[in-house]
Amino acid sequence: MALNGIKVAEFAGLAPAPMCGLMLADYGADVIRIDRAGQQNTGAPRDHLVRGKRSIAIDLKSKEGIEIAKAIVNVSDVLLDPYRPGVLERLGLGPDVFLGSNGSNPDLIYCRLTGFGQTGKYSSFAGHDINYIAASGVVSLFGPAGQPPSFPSNILGDFAGLALPAFANIVLQLYSSKTNTSVPRGKVLDINIVDSVRYLALSSSIVKTMNPRPYGFDQPRGLNMLEGGAPYYRNYATATPDRYMSVGSIEPQFYALLLKGLELDPHALPNRENVKNWSILMDIFERKFRSKPIEHWIKVFTEKYPDACCVPVEDIYSPENIKPIFALGDNDRKPDPSQTILYPGENTTEILKEVLGKSGPVKGTQQYKKSRI
Asked: What are the boundaries of the signal sequence (predicted)?
C-alpha cells in the first residue's frame, strides 16, 4: 500500500475532510478521527465516510484534552483541519504549535480544508457547498436558460473541489519530500473550494475569453452545446418511467450512428450545424426516445451501434451501484465493506495505549460504550 506507515489525525467534520481521510485510509494510512467528547449516543453518526479509520473522543474544552490531541498530532504525519479559519488556533492547536524550528512536529503536513479560504470577504462566514461554488462563479455555468442556476448536489464543491485536491496535495507533499531531500516535509496546505472549482473550470473560463463559437460556448447559459443546448448532447426520456438515455454524439461519425439507431433519415433532417435547427431536432429526438422503453434503446446502442455515444443514465442508488468502491488500482487491500459507522470514541482506549502508553481511563477523553445505546 502506497501510504503504509503514514499516520493521519483527522479532526471530525462533515463531507470533505472525512472523504479525504477515507481516501488516505484506502491507500494504507492509519487515520485517527478526533471526535469531541459528549457527542456519543445522540443518534446515528452523521459521518459515514469512515472506512479504515479509528476514533478517539476528546474534550477539546479541557486542558487535559488539548494535551492529548497534541500528543496524537505529534506522532502524526498529516493533520486534517475541517474548521473555519482560526478554530484550531484558538484551541492551541494551530500550525505554529507544531511546525517550524520551535514546533513539536516540524515534519507535519497541516492541511486546512475550507469553503471560502483563509482570507477574503467570506472567509469567516458559515456556508455550504452551494454557497462556495456560487462564490466561485462556477455555479453560473449550470442550469437551464432563463432560470436560476442549478447545482450538482454537493459533489462538485465538497468532494471534487475540496476532498480530492486536499488528498492530491498531501500525497504530492509526501512524495516531494521523499524524492527531494531539500524539500522539507512539514508544510501548511490551504485548500479551499472556491479556488479549486475555479481551477477545474479553467477550460470554460479560457474559451469564454477567446472565440467561443468553435467550442460551443457562444450562447447564454443552458443553450450551449456542452450544457445540454445541442440536440446531440443531452439526456432524453424513454417510454420507461424515470429512465433516460444520455446522448453525446458530437462528432459527425458518431452522430451518423445515432441517427441509424433512431431509424432517422439524415437527409430528411435539418442541418445540425445551424443552431436555429437545434430545437427542431430536439423535438424529433424526444419523440423517438419516448416511443420505446429503455430496454429497447439499450439493446440498440450496445449491440448495434456502440459508437453512437448513447448510453443509459444509471441510478446510483440501484443495487448494482450500491457496492463498496475502493482505491483504484489497489488489488491488495481488502477493507471491510460493512464499515459505514464509526461511533465517537469507539477506539479511545487502544489509541491512548498506543500514544500515551496508558490503558486505564484518562481525563479529557471518553470511551464509547455500546451498553448505552
From this structure: none
Nearest one of 256, 278, 275 to 267, comparing CA atoms: 256
* Matching fold, domains 7-199+343-366 and 233-313: no
pTM for this one?
0.87
Q: One of 107, 128, 296, 330 is an active-site residue; which one? A: 128
The residue to which cell 521523499 is assigned:
178
| HSE-up of residue 221 (Cα within 13 Å, Cβ side) | 15
158 is catalytic: yes
Out of 35, 77, 81, 158, the active site residue is 158
Tell the CATH topology of 7-199+343-366: Rossmann fold (3.40.50)
Residue 226 pLDDT level (bands cut at 50, 70, 90): confident
Sheet holding 7-11, edge to edge: 187-192, 109-114, 78-81, 7-11, 30-36, 53-58, 365-366
The CATH class of 233-313 is alpha beta
With left for phi above 0 and alpha for psi between -120 and 50, is residue 238 left, alpha or beta?
beta
pLDDT tens figures, 87-112: 999 999 999 999 988 999 999 999 99
